[in-house]
Design brief:
This protein is globular. It is an alpha/beta fold and about 325 residues long. The longest helix is centred in the middle third of the chain and has 25 residues. α9 runs parallel beside α11.
């Protein structure tokens, strides 16, 4: 990494700008600041994205050089534009590969084949010697070795126990919740233990003020907050979510001292009363159909739970502001 890049990405004024925006978010969280704020990421791009799999150190240099070029825009006073290294390997199927699923790239995105074992037989992977997890740690170490202090780095897509279980088994995990509950509990617990271990590794190795869970541009939270992907919760009744998933999601967010956020992108409104009961769930991020259901979240969440809203055709800004009124909300620009 050249000195020009290092100088920009250690600039104290850019750090101060980042921290002032985080303070505004904290003030929104606490209810002290009643204004809505806007968020969008300045993410790193590289000329050779495939290098992340073969030479993550060179990939990191390219990514940081790209961020340095964009850095002048990060000092915006109109919206929060954090500089961020998003470094997803295998997309949303990263954890699937850690568990031994066959992962492949097709039609411009990653997919996986289901595991062949029955639900209830899942074994915990040996993370210490796992090649995929080793690559993720190598990428994070490359970031640390550059000693830059302005940009943040995201975790891999650590997702959630239910997301991963559905990736690994398809509908069989849902059937097992009803027909073989002990088997379903076993595998979901194994998955959650691995996810928690990964989050703990990031917390132990990445400076707190530079660590963010995945998708920083739509979910940036002040340091000390975690995140999980709740996409598949729309498949569950309140009773199944409460029995099988809610304790796991709450425990996963509890790895972080300030709790965290759940990403939602479908029809999850049947679960809002349960979301309101989760002490470690501090924020929800709404995309697509979930964004169109904004009024249900405004009415049903706790007062202190903040909404991150991704605007869409079915929920434009003007309507969102009318529905939200004084609800604590951060809008994705």
């Amino acid at each position: 990494m050249d000195e020009f890049t290092r100088e920009i990405l250690t600039d104290e004024t850019l750090i101060a700008c980042r921290e002032s925006w985080f303070q505004k978010i904290r003030d929104i969280y606490s209810g002290k600041d009643k204004e809505k704020m806007f968020l969008r990421v300045l993410g790193a791009e590289t000329k050779n994205p495939e290098l992340i799999y073969t030479d993550p150190e060179k990939w990191m240099d390219e990514a940081l050089e790209n961020l340095a070029v964009q850095a002048k825009n990060a000092a915006s006073k109109q919206l929060f534009l954090p500089l961020a290294v998003e470094n997803w390997i295998y997309g949303v199927h990263f954890v699937d590969k850690v568990f031994g699923a066959e992962v492949f790239f097709q039609y411009d995105q990653w997919y996986n084949h289901y595991l062949k074992n029955e639900v209830g037989k899942l074994e915990k992977p040996d993370l210490e010697n796992n090649e995929t997890w080793g690559l993720a740690k190598r990428i994070a170490q490359a970031f640390l070795n550059r000693k830059v202090t302005v940009p943040m780095i995201a975790t891999q897509v650590i997702a959630s126990a239910l997301n991963i279980a559905v990736n690994l088994y398809g509908e069989e995990i849902l059937v097992a919740m009803v027909t073989e509950p002990e088997a379903a509990h076993h595998d979901l617990q194994i998955i959650n233990e691995v996810l928690m271990e990964m989050h703990r590794w990031y917390r132990e190795h990445i400076p707190t003020n530079q660590l963010q869970p995945v998708a920083i541009g739509g979910r940036a939270q002040p340091p000390g907050h975690g995140q999980l992907c709740g996409c598949t919760t729309q498949l569950l009744s309140p009773a199944l979510y409460e029995e099988f998933i809610m304790p796991l999601d709450n425990a996963l967010l509890g790895v972080y001292p300030n709790g965290g956020l759940i990403h939602l992108c479908g029809s999850h409104k049947q679960l809002i009363p349960l979301f309101a009961r989760m002490e470690n769930l501090k924020n929800v991020q709404l995309n697509d159909k979930a964004a169109e259901d904004l009024e249900y979240y405004v009415e049903g969440l706790r007062e202190d739970q903040v909404i991150y809203l991704n605007l869409c055709e079915g929920m434009p800004l003007e309507r969102a502001l009318e529905i939200a009124k004084d609800k604590r909300m951060i809008i994705i620009a």
